[in-house]
Specification:
Oligomer: single chain
Shape: rod-shaped
Number of strands: 2
Largest sheet: 2 strands, antiparallel
Distance between the termini: 83 Å
Number of domains: 2
Order of helices and strands: HHEEH
Radius of gyration: 30 Å
Structural class: mainly alpha
Mean pLDDT: 88
């Protein structure tokens, strides 16, 4: 990042620190590896709400799939029964 901004590492760190303190960006620095993480961290309540919504959607899809599988099984049993009735006559 310092190379891209044409600044020294110390100047870049000061600039980034100022931006984080002013809440312009959300970042976490790893000085040992020289890495900056700009991933925005969610509020725990929002994260749980998103997770709950995703689980609800997944369960809805599972229920729909189960219903369709059961429907197909009933249709095939009915057709098999009708075919056997015709062959018995």
């Amino acid at each position: 990042m310092a190379n891209l901004l044409a600044l020294t590492e110390a100047e870049t760190e000061d600039f980034l620190s100022t931006m984080v303190v002013n809440k312009t960006v959300e970042a976490k620095t790893d000085r040992l590896d020289g890495v900056v993480d700009f991933v925005k961290h969610q509020d725990p309540n929002d994260m749980l709400n998103n997770w709950s919504h995703s689980v609800s959607e997944l369960l809805s899809l599972v229920m729909k799939t189960t219903h369709l599988v059961n429907k197909e099984e009933m249709v095939h049993k009915h057709l098999l029964g009708a075919a056997q009735t015709k062959s018995d006559n």
